[in-house]
C-alpha cells in the first residue's frame, strides 16, 4: 500500500492566507490532488468525488442539489470537491454560497483540466479564489535532499520529507509522479505505459476536448519526442500531416490539462538580436517517455541522457517557480547568432543564467555562453551556474560555478 507523504503545496492550501477563500487546486492526473484532499479532510468534512460515476451523474442531473445539501447541514463545514471539470456547473453554486457567507464553508476544489472551466465566472473574478497547482514530486519533498544553491523553497520548521530518494537515472527514466516514486521499476514501467491510454480516454475522449482522437494520439507521440526543442509548427505539420492550426489547438489542450508548459524566451530590452520562438516541455520525464513510446531501459540514456537531464532540471525549476509565485520566472536565452543559455531564472533582486550539462567533468567551455549573457546583462545578473553531475562544486570562472544536480 502506498504511503501518504507531505507535499509542499499543502501548507499553502491550508494556510491562513487562504482561510476565507475558495481554493482551486489544479494539476495533471496522478499528481496527488485526490490524496491531498484526503489529507485536508476532517471527520465532518463533506467530500464530493466527481470521478465516481453515480455521484457525478446525480449532480449532472441536478447541479442545484449541492446548494440544498450544504444549506441543510446548518453549520460551517469544509467542502472538498474532486475533479470539478467533470461537472463545472457546480462552480456557479459554489460562488453563490460563498457570496452569501464567505466564512460558512471552506471550499477546496481540484481539477485536472481548466478547459471546461473557462466559461464559468468564478475562475475569473478576483477576490474570491486562490489558485494553486499540484506538480510531480520536487527535490525538497524527497528524503536526503540538499539545500539549493539556485532556488531554495521555504520550508516549515517541522518539515520532514517522506518520498524516497532516487538516483538521477531513475528520475530521468521514470519521472517524479508521487505514486511512481514508490513503485519498483517493473511496476513503474507498466503504470507509465498505461498513463497515455488513460489520459486519452479520460481527459480527451470522454471530455470531448478534440474532434479527431486518432490524430491527437499521433500528435502526442511527436510532441513528446520534440519536448524541449524550439517550436517549429510548420516542420511538425509536414512531419505529421496535421494542419498548423490544428497543432496549435492540440498544444493548447496539453496546456489546459496541465501535462505541458511553454517556456518563453527571456524578455530582454534589446530583443532585435534574440530569438522569440518558445519551447514546449512535458510536465514529467517519465510521462514524456511513455507518450514518446520510448523503451524504459537505461540504454536510452546513451542517446537521450542530455535531453532528459535538461528537461528534468527545467521542469523542477518551473514547478518551484509556480509554487513560489509570479515574482519567480523561468525562460531561456538564444541569440540570432546561435549563442544559447538553457535557462534564465528571474527571482526578486536577481537574474541567474543556468546551463545544464550531462557531464561529471565540467570545464571553462561549459561556462562560455553564461559569460556572454552576464556581459550582456551586467545590471541584473552577476553570477551563473552550470548544473551537472560533478560530485562537488567547481569554480569555472570568477562568476560561474558548476554545481552537482543535487544542489539545484
Verbal overview:
- The protein has 408 residues and is of the alpha/beta class.
- The chain folds into three domains: 8-134, Rossmann fold; 167-310, Arc Repressor Mutant, subunit A; 329-407, no CATH class.
- 36% of the residues lie in helices and 17% in strands.
- It has 13 helices and 13 strands.
- The strands form three sheets. A six-stranded mixed sheet has the order 8-9-10-11-13-12, sandwiched between helices. A five-stranded parallel sheet has the order 2-3-4-1-5, sandwiched between helices. A two-stranded antiparallel ribbon has the order 6-7.
Which structural class should the secondary elements be placed in? alpha/beta
Cα shape: globular
- Calculate the terminal CA-CA distance, rounded to whole Å: 31 Å
Mean pLDDT: 90
* Rg (CA only): 22 Å
| Total E-strand runs | 13
Low-confidence stretches: none
The arrangement of helices and strands along the chain is HEHEHHEHEEHHHHHEEHHEEEHEEE
Largest sheet: 6 strands, mixed
Q: Give the number of domains.
A: 3
Q: Tell me what portion of residues adopts beta-strand conformation.
A: 15-25%
Strand order of the biggest β-sheet:
8-9-10-11-13-12
Approximate helicity band: 25-40%
CATH architecture of the largest domain: Orthogonal Bundle
Q: Total helix count?
A: 13
> What fold name goes in the CATH topology slot of the largest domain?
Arc Repressor Mutant, subunit A
Amino acid at each position: 500500500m502506498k504511503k501518504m507523504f507531505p507535499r509542499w503545496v499543502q501548507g499553502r492550501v491550508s494556510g491562513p492566507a487562504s482561510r476565507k477563500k475558495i481554493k482551486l487546486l489544479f494539476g495533471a492526473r496522478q499528481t496527488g490532488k485526490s490524496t491531498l484532499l484526503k489529507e485536508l479532510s476532517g471527520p465532518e468534512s463533506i467530500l464530493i468525488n466527481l470521478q465516481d460515476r453515480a455521484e457525478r451523474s446525480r449532480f449532472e442531473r441536478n447541479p442545484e442539489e449541492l446548494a440544498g445539501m450544504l444549506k441543510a447541514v446548518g453549520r460551517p463545514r469544509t467542502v472538498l470537491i474532486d475533479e470539478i471539470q467533470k461537472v463545472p456547473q457546480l462552480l456557479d453554486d459554489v460562488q453563490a454560497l460563498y457570496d452569501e457567507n464567505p466564512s460558512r464553508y471552506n471550499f477546496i476544489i481540484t481539477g485536472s483540466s481548466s478547459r471546461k472551466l473557462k466559461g464559468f465566472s468564478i475562475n475569473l473574478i478576483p477576490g474570491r479564489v486562490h489558485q494553486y497547482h499540484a506538480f510531480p514530486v520536487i527535490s525538497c519533498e524527497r528524503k536526503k535532499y540538499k539545500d539549493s544553491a539556485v532556488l531554495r523553497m521555504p520550508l516549515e520548521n517541522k518539515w520532514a520529507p517522506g518520498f524516497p530518494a532516487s538516483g538521477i537515472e531513475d528520475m530521468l527514466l521514470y519521472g517524479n509522479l508521487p505514486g511512481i516514486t514508490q513503485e519498483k521499476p517493473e511496476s513503474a514501467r507498466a503504470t507509465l505505459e498505461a498513463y497515455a491510454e488513460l489520459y486519452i480516454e479520460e481527459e480527451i475522449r470522454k471530455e470531448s476536448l478534440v474532434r479527431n482522437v486518432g490524430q491527437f494520439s499521433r500528435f502526442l507521440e511527436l510532441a513528446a519526442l520534440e519536448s524541449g526543442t524550439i517550436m517549429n509548427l510548420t516542420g511538425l505539420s509536414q512531419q505529421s500531416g496535421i494542419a498548423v492550426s490544428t497543432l496549435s489547438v492540440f498544444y493548447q489542450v496539453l496546456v489546459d490539462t496541465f501535462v505541458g508548459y511553454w517556456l518563453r524566451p527571456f524578455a530582454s530590452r534589446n530583443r532585435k538580436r534574440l530569438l522569440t520562438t518558445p519551447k514546449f516541455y512535458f510536465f514529467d520525464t517519465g510521462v514524456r517517455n511513455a507518450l514518446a513510446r520510448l523503451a524504459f531501459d537505461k540504454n536510452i540514456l546513451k542517446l537521450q541522457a542530455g535531453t532528459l537531464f535538461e528537461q528534468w532540471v527545467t521542469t523542477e525549476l518551473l514547478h518551484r517557480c509556480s509554487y513560489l509565485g509570479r515574482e519567480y520566472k523561468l525562460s531561456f536565452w538564444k541569440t540570432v547568432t546561435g549563442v544559447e543559455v538553457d535557462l534564465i531564472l528571474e527571482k526578486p533582486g536577481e537574474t541567474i543564467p543556468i546551463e545544464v550539462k550531462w557531464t561529471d567533468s565540467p570545464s571553462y567551455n561549459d561556462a562560455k555562453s553564461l559569460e556572454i549573457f552576464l556581459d550582456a546583462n551586467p545590471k541584473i545578473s552577476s553570477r551563473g551556474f552550470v548544473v551537472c553531475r560533478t560530485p562537488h562544486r567547481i569554480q569555472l570562472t570568477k562568476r560561474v560555478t558548476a554545481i552537482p544536480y543535487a544542489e539545484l
